[in-house]
Amino acid sequence: MDIERFKHQHVEILDGIAKLRRLAHAGIKENAHEIAQAIASLSNIVKLHLAIEDRILYPALQSGSNARLAAMGKAYQEDMQGIASGYIAFSRHWSTATAIAEKAEQFRAEANTVLKTVYSRMQKENTEFYPAIEAL
Known about the structure:
The protein is mostly helical. It has helices at 4-26, 32-62, 67-93, 97-102, 104-134.
């Protein structure tokens, strides 16, 4: 199974997280507009990635002949539901520069939690899940 598209999206997602970190470290209030734009951009990539995984990757694994990968895919899909809903709630809540600037420290705390979770998940997929798929 060719998963290059998924791997490329992971690079884009990780780059988006890194950009948000840089902006936040440079000053949340001062960069609130750029942070809101970066969240919107990252959200587009995340939503596309999730949709493609749900429509293509997970069904292909679950209908395949490899029971181990089918089970792994199901577990990853179920785990991702909570991560995805947390990220989507975060991105909706912090979609405007005004909200970000007015509650900069709350934004920082939530961003640290949510983005760390997404980052960790991407790393786990890159080191465990995708290599298992490519070994097919």
